[in-house]
Each structure stands twice: as C-alpha cells, then as structure tokens.
Specification:
Layout lengths: L8 H32 L7 H17 L6 H20 L3 H18 L7
Keywords: Two-component regulatory system
Protein name: Hpt domain-containing protein
GO molecular function, one term: protein kinase activity
Length: 118
C-alpha cells in the first residue's frame, strides 16, 4: 500500500481524482434518467424497482464522491439517498424528494466540486 511519503502517491491520487471527475456528468445523467422514470410513473409513488435504481445511483455518489475531492456532492447525495430510503420503507415523502434531486442535479451541473451547496 502506498504511503503519503511515497513520491508517487500524490500523483496517483490526483489521477484517480481526475478519473472520478470525468464520471460525474455521466452519473448525473443516469440520476436524471432515473428521476424521469420515477416521475413518469402513474400513482402517488413510483414503483419500488424504479426507486431502488435512483437510490443505488445516489448511494454510489454518496459513497465515493468525498474520497475523490467532491465532498459536498457526496454529502448532498447521502442526504437525498436517505430521503429515498425513507420513501422505500415508509411509502411516503416522494413529493419532497423530487425537488431535492432536481436541485442536486442543477447544482452539480454548475460545479460538482463546489464546497457550498446553493
């Protein structure tokens, strides 16, 4: 395992951060699509399979973003992931999730590495 005193450590870490940064727009597009599928579903709640897809995408961002220099993105994805989990378990709260996901997507499209969330 590399240690911080390894001269190549920071270069490898920077390369990993750059690789992750390239995936962010693709992941945000997947979240956009998953949200669209959920919103298009008839009824008060989207089908569980569609909610699970949205949850998995948010969970993936929440789990990895902070590691690669996207701390606020990870925090907000985690917060919204918990909201979606609540919809899955309590079968309520979906109307509150939609604008939160939309806000995340809009924010991330401006600067997914920003340290403030507006």
């Amino acid at each position: 395992m590399a240690t911080p005193i390894d001269p190549d450590f920071h270069a490898r870490l920077a390369a990993l951060n750059e690789k992750f940064a390239v995936t962010v727009p693709v992941t945000m597009e997947k979240i956009t699509q998953a949200l669209a599928v959920c919103k298009a579903a008839p009824g008060e709640l989207p089908p569980e399979t569609d909610l699970r897809q949205l949850h998995e995408l948010l969970h993936g961002v929440a789990g990895s973003a902070g590691t690669f220099g996207f701390g606020m993105l990870g925090q907000q994805a985690r917060r919204i992931e918990h909201m979606v989990r609540g919809v899955l378990t309590e079968h309520t709260g979906w109307p509150e999730v939609v604008p939160e996901v939309e806000k995340l997507l809009k924010w991330a499209s401006r600067d997914a590495q920003a340290t403030t969330y507006e």
